[in-house]
Design a protein that fits this description.
Blueprint lengths: L1 H30 L1 H9 L4 E10 L2 E9 L5 E7 L2 E11 L5 E8 L13 E7 L5 E7 L14 E4 L4
Antiparallel strand pairs: 1-2, 1-8, 2-3, 3-4, 4-5, 5-6, 6-7, 7-8
């Protein structure tokens, strides 16, 4: 009987360690991806804005609207620019997503994007009120200082 007690305790400890290790692994795998997936799939409409100002006649205003059906509209306005894009988001990693071009809206002026092109990859800042561009791809900013880390700020309702 003493022998069995000495054998059962180490087995129980190993089982407990295994359960904790598996739980930690699952938590670590889902820690970053779950909040992003929840944000990407929420049915709430959200609007994010980003502005570039280089000079009086060289500026761009970006408005990214996540619609209640989970699709996106990206409106870009500036000097001789009126771009209206329909897009969707896809996961691009544990804590990032990519905005993918679907089509132009009917009031778009010009454009050479093709269906399926990645516009940019992004992540969220320390709060979900900031959407940070990780890498511009099919779209490019007008100011080279915004090639990395450009921040779209969530518009809040008053």
């Amino acid at each position: 009987m003493n022998n069995q007690k000495g054998f059962v305790l180490p087995i129980m400890m190993m089982a407990a360690i295994l359960i904790v290790a598996v739980g930690f692994f699952v938590y670590k795998q889902n820690k970053n991806i779950l909040p992003l997936q929840k944000i990407m799939t929420t049915s709430e409409e959200e609007t994010y804005s980003f502005n570039e100002f280089v000079s009086a006649d060289e500026n761009m205003d970006y408005e990214l609207v996540k619609l209640s059906d989970g699709t996106y509209e990206l409106n870009i306005d500036g000097f001789q620019t009126m771009t209206r894009i329909k897009a969707h988001a896809e996961g691009a990693g544990q804590d990032s997503a990519k905005l993918v071009f679907d089509s132009y809206n009917k009031d778009n002026v010009g454009g050479t994007l093709k269906k399926g092109e990645t516009l940019f990859t992004y992540t969220f800042g320390t709060s979900i009120n900031e959407l940070i561009i990780l890498k511009w791809q099919a779209l490019q900013p007008i100011d080279s200082k915004n090639l990395s880390g450009a921040v779209f700020v969530k518009n809040t309702k008053n």
